Amino acid sequence: MNLIFKDQHIVMSRQDELLALPSGEQVADLEYTPSLIAEPGVTIFGFLHDTEALLAYPNLELVNLRHALNVLPDTLVSQVIRAQQLIHYQITNRYCGRCGEKTVLNPATNRLSCPGCRGDVYPQIAPAMIVAVTKGDKLLMAQANHFAPTMWSILAGFCEIGENLEETVEREVFEEVGIKVKNIRYWGSQYWPFPNSLMVGFTAEYAEGEIKLDHSEMRAAGFYAKDEIPGRPSTSLSIASRMIDDFIAKN
Ligand SMILES: [Zn+2]
User: Fold this and answer.
1) Which residues have a beta carbon within 5 Å of ligand 1, which is an ion?
2) CA of 94 to the centre of ligand 1 (A)
3) Where are the domains of the chain?
4) Predicted local distance difference test score (pLDDT) of residue 118
5) pTM score, two decimals?
6) Distance from the CA of 113 to the center of ligand 1, in angstroms?
């Protein structure tokens, strides 16, 4: 498999309207920066500097990773996410954040490290919570301001410094829709590469308060029975989608 990325896009080939990962032949002459870290099963692996280089290849295009994950075979999705995150790790850690020295790959650990202060540079993974809040047989669904008009989901938010995840759940739900929740329970988790999150899923029950939107973030929110769900997340691969399906199956 050949994986060449540009930020949150991936080089794919298009033939007869079908998108696929490119063959080695198709990308043989393409100028890209190879990944320092090898990935099993990936032959050509790196990132583009210059997207204009692609203009000379009529069958190749840069495809948004979210879209690519929807069209790739399910068996490849986690490896493509991992590869894109390895590239993201290398691009965002070219210099040591502590002393400013250029980082190098430590082949023993497959990690970037700093020759100046001799520290390993760990990948930055941002924990975030996502929560299915129920009130009886209804689920809290919301539309963030940046969602497309047909897209709805359950609430999610990044963990702040010093918080445990249950506190993130309570704070984010209260900030975004003004209600308090109780009985917070772990549901499952998913690595999510937009941009580098570990999504930790919880269920919770409505405790008190009226829905009051934070209009700087949210366009709409409400409790919906399973046959009234107003819209879906943008991809069925997301933990949000699986949690909504789980709610539907249990109610
Ligand atoms: Zn350093």
Assistant:
1) 96, 98-99, 101, 114, 116-117
2) 11
3) 2-92, 126-250
4) 87
5) 0.89
6) 8
